[in-house]
Amino acid sequence: MKPFQWLAVVPFIGLLIGPIVHNRLHPFILGMPFPLGWITVWIVLTALIMAIVYALDPANKGDAP
Questions:
Q1: Phi/psi at 29 (nearest 5 deg)?
Q2: DSSP string, 2-37
Q3: pLDDT at 20 over 70
Q4: Which of 7, 24, 44, 51 is most buried (CB neighbours < 10 A)?
Q5: Is the peptide bond before 27 cis (omega within 30 degrees of 0)?
Q6: Spatial distance between the Cα atoms of 28 and 8, rounded to a whole number of angstroms
Q7: Average pLDDT over residues 38-58
Q8: pTM score
Q9: What whole-number distance in Å separates Cα of residue 54 and Cα of residue 39?
Q10: To which H or E segment does residue 57 belong?
Q11: Residue 27, exposed/middle/buried by CB under 10 A (0-12, 13-18, 19+)?
């Protein structure tokens, strides 16, 4: 596995570990309870991280047939 592909592990850790560690109702994030806001933020971050992994992958740099 290439080093930049390890970025794909970050959302997994953020989505699974975060709500367990921060299981509180307050504060609110965007009007949602903290665990739901945490998951919503990580869904957006996951898309951004996957876009970075895609952009860094040399297999995607070649010309498409």
A1: -115, 115
A2: -GGGGGGHHHHHHHHHHHHHT--S-SEETTEEHHHH
A3: yes
A4: 7
A5: yes
A6: 27
A7: 91
A8: 0.77
A9: 22
A10: none
A11: exposed
Q: Which two tokens stand for residue 56?
A: 């860094």
Contact yes or no for 8/54 (Cβ under 8 A):
no
Q: Are 57 and 49 in contact (CB under 8 A)?
A: no
Residue with tokens 């290439």: 2
8 close to 20: Cβ distance less than 8 angstroms: no
Across the range 15-40, mean pLDDT stands at: 82
Nearest to 54 by CA among 3, 19, 5, 2: 5
